[in-house]
Amino acid sequence: MPVPAISLENVSKAYAPDKPPAVRDVSLELMPGEVLALVGGSGSGKTTTLKMINRLIEPTAGTIRVQGEDVTAIDPVLLRRSIGYAFQGVGLFPHLTVGANVAITPQLLGWSAERISQRIDELLTLVDLPPETYRDRLPRELSGGQQQRVGFARALAAEPRAILMDEPFGALDPITRDTVQTEFRQLQQSLAVSVVIVTHDMTEAVLLADRIAVMHEGELRQLGTPRELLRQPADDYVAQLIETPRRHSDFIESLMKNSASGGSQ
Amino acid sequence: MSPRLQLLFEQLPNLLGGHLSLAVPAIAVGVLISVPLGILCVKSAAVRGPVMTVISLVQTVPSIALLAIMVAVLGGTIGYRPAFIALLVYSILPIVRNTIVGLDSVDPAMREAARAVGMRPLQQLVKVELPLAFPVILAGIRTATVWVVGIATLSTPVGAPSLGNYIFSGLQLRDWQRVLFGCIATMSLSLVLDQLIALIETSLQRRRLALVWSATAALGVLLIIGLSPQFLSRTERGFSGLVTTQALKEKTPARETTVQPLTGQTVTIGAKGFTEQLILTELLAAEIEKAGGQAKQLGNMGSTIVFDALAKNTVDVSVDYTGTLWSTVFKEPEPLNRAAMLAAVTGRLFSEYGIVALGSLGFENTYAMVVKAEQAEARGFSTIADITPLADRLRIGGDPEFFGRPEWERVRSLYGLSAIEQVGMDSTFMYQAVADGQVDLAAGFSTDGRIDAYGLSVLEDSREAFPPYDALLLLSPKAAAKRELVAILRPLVNRISAAAMRAANRSVDEEGDTPGEAAEALRQLAFPRHADKAAAVTPVVSR
Ligand SMILES: Nc1ncnc2c1ncn2[C@@H]1O[C@H](COP(=O)(O)OP(=O)(O)OP(=O)(O)O)[C@@H](O)[C@H]1O
Ligand SMILES: [Mg+2]
Asked: Which of A247, B133, B156, B294 is the most buried (most CB within 10 A)?
């Protein structure tokens, strides 16, 4: 069995000793090349879990490993340079051009200017932003969807071991979102990069992820493929959550039927 | 262009250079100190509180006082250093404050993003936080620039030349063109610097790097000009901002083949900021230069600053008054009679400070209660005692310093004038105020030319409330050891009558002569034999 890209063993995080922990006793594994979705309501501990992986937040209990290595044994700065991160919101630096934003981590890693320049062009082409047009623009000169793609490019820039994404599509309109999601999936498959993606949208999770981890009130309620979650939901909360995409599509289908029959009268 | 205006422009390179050499380095060093200090405040709450308290407190000290304090802190050193330090202090607050505000207002999400891409703390600061705070910090630097350029005009009284020389000497000479010229020059400089900085900001925003570099280069050039030693030494001549006899002399071909006892020596003359002092400075400078020396004039300085500088040998020669020294230096509350005070002051100057008083110049510049001559006649005022019965209906004008002096206390109690209404005003305006009837009398100065010019008369001080104020020619301990210098200056002792001094003051204050011209006239009165010779070689100055 291959070494997991990322693994969490009984990880907990309490922001304050007197408050209930934001994350409680979570264990999960991300296999190489896999996309894992963290799904759950607002405040369920998704972002906290994600940030513990690259030590933006330190857990209060448990062990986290990246490619089998305990992260507490790694300099957090070097750890972060080896893991791509895309932000809730966009998180591009407004004073830097698109190219400079993408170049940050490679620069920190001391890549040669030539290699960085090549990498920028390669990645911008990959995310469908022709470098000649976009490389020297400032983030504010891009649309929301374009900024989001630059965000990916930046997360991918330093050939990371894994990518962490926190609601990357939250701010997009449905159509742009659909396009960017599709592109993301293609990109991920072609690069075979391991991804943890946080979302509170179950439909998005079903579309993008190989496996889904459902979180509720800081606890991991169930971890499985979309199919497993549908067939054998662990509890009512999971059942309700996993039902939503189907309920939505059923509802839309019935609307279509009604309007079709209404039109014939 | 009128010759007067031309004269103002001729002084511009020196004074502008002096101003730049103070303001630009003060701002530059201010930035170098304040930005790191601001960063430190943001990173450490323990530093922030005390730093902000101290800076804000210092900022409330009035600027002219801060300059004077710096002179005291530096142990009486005058000139560039105290002025520079005071300006530096003033530049710090706005830059530190804006650095803090700018860094505080960086979106925490940006800080986290910087961490998440793998920046170390210093990299976060340099690559993310400072660039994002940059516009706010720059706004602070612009504020500091405008402040410092403005306040630099106040460095004239501590002996550092600046565009303020135009303003101070203009106020003194009641030459509004000169004052206006100084103000406009200062405002223009401040505007140019501010706009250059603004240009850096806007062109950075628009990413027009060529423009950024040109603006930065322009500022750099100004900094270099300000720092260049050539400029510093050039500004050392004509310090008072007035035409010097040397300027006239330079136009005459060197003819002296006779003895030049002061060749190669520089003598620094310190002067307070009123007309008489400026004229006497020119007179002394002329004597020194006639003997082949270099005269460096430090004009428009604060009164005690000149004295401290003399004691410290920073200034070689100055003229001060017995009564002033008696009360401000020796802190004696009760005056003596004229001869006794002259002796006592001379003795104590030497024993306590090593300062040598060569003697009185021959006149006294004491306080004088002046009233309109026609009113004095109509109401029969001849001595101060005559106004006592009317005290509660009279208004007296005087400079604010006067009303705080022990002399005024004595006058009030000796003549029973406690009910009189005091109106503080600059001494420049008080004679006019009496003439116009805005005040009934004023505490003027007995040698002031405006007493005659405005048709005022002096009330006799029959009870000797005012101490005697003989004008003493003083030499610093070091200067007093120079025999040639003593020999050259001693002939001035007892040569100038009060009437001659008054006439000289009047020619500057009322007739628009330059102090240099008035000094020349005074010299001709003092040394009639010299005068023939001098007249033959002094070029006629067109006015
Ligand atoms: N820095 C913090 N200090 C204290 N409590 C925190 C902090 N960050 C998060 N929390 C709390 O921890 C819990 C989990 O927060 P988290 O951000 O992980 O939720 P989330 O699942 O990402 O929610 P959302 O979908 O709204 O982003 C919440 O109750 C939140 O209030
Ligand atoms: Mg979140």
From this structure: B156
Q: Is the CB of A22 under 6 A from ligand 1?
A: yes
Distance of alpha carbon B456 from alpha carbon B369, whole angstroms = 10
Interface A-B, measured as beta-carbon pairs within 8 A, has a size of: 46
- Contact predicate B163/B182, CB 8 Å: yes
Can you tell me which residue has the tokens 């990916």?
A: A152
CA distance B404 to chain A (A): 58
DSSP letter string over A142-169?
Answer: S-HHHHHHHHHHHHHTT--SEEEEESTT
Reading the block at residue B526, the tokens are 């003092």
Judge whether B289 and B281 are in contact, CB under 8 Å. no
CA distance A105 to A109: 6
Phi, psi values for residue A41, rounded to 5°: -70, 175
Q: Give the DSSP letter of residue A72.
A: G
DSSP state of B383: B
Q: Does domain A6-225 have CATH number 3.40.50.1170?
A: no
User: Which tens digits make up the pLDDT trace of A60-115?
Assistant: 999 999 999 999 999 999 999 999 998 877 689 999 999 999 999 999 999 999 99
What pTM, to 2 d.p., does this model score? Answer: 0.73
Inter-chain residue contact A87 with B116, CB threshold 8 Å: yes
The gap from C-alpha A158 to its chain's centroid, in whole angstroms, comes to: 17
Q: Give the separation between CA A40 and CA B431, rounded to whole angstroms.
A: 87
Please, what are the domains in chain B?
3-237 (1.10.3720.10), 259-363+471-537 (3.40.190.10), 367-459 (3.40.190.120)
Q: Which of A129, A149, A138, A156 is nearest to A98 (CA)?
A: A138
Any atom of ligand 1 within 6 Å of the Cβ of A199: no
Integer angstrom CA distances of residue B491 from B284, B296, B357, B496, B526 = 11, 20, 13, 11, 10
pLDDT beyond 60 at B307: yes
